[in-house]
Amino acid sequence: MADNSDGVPPDDEFQAEYRVFVFTLEVLADTPEGACEAMGNYNVPWELKIDVERAKYLVGRGYLTAEQEKKILAMVSALGDVPASVYAGPSPTDGNVEAMRHPAWSPLRDMAKELLLELRPVTARWLGNGN
Question: Are 55 and 76 spatial neighbours (Cβ–Cβ below 8 Å)?
Fold first, then answer.
């Protein structure tokens, strides 16, 4: 396969991006406290938003099934239900935890748990584990 414009083979690029996405799903699937701890208590809602949005670049590359891609895009779309005020919260630990407790994150947590299960075969292939 041809390399991308940065000279990275497509398989390597997908694997790197997929690894970040799986970590993001694991963080989202955790409790608000666990998510904040995993992300270093720094701007957690915003960082998760950016990482979930980047998942759209996993779609259409031939590595995922149509159903998996549909679920990823649904998760990206669901970010629109999280109010902007949640992303603009303070960075201290308490502020991040409070922002991650916002009810709008609950459906995303559920989606993350479902996606982790749905993506087990992909995770096993590309990351060597089935989480």
Answer: yes
Task: Give the pLDDT band of residue 1 (cuts 50, 70, 90).
Answer: very low
* In contact, 71 and 118? CB cutoff 8 Å: yes
User: Which DSSP symbol is given to 103?
Assistant: T
DSSP class of residue 42 equals: S
Check: CB of residue 35 under 8 Å from CB of residue 44.
yes
Residue 32 tokens read as: 């608000």
State the pTM of this model.
Answer: 0.89
Q: Six-digit token pair at 126?
A: 């590309």
CA-closest candidate to residue 41, choices 84, 1, 99: 99
- Other C-beta atoms closer than 10 Å to the C-beta of 121 total 11
**107 vs 54: CA distance, rounded Å:** 19
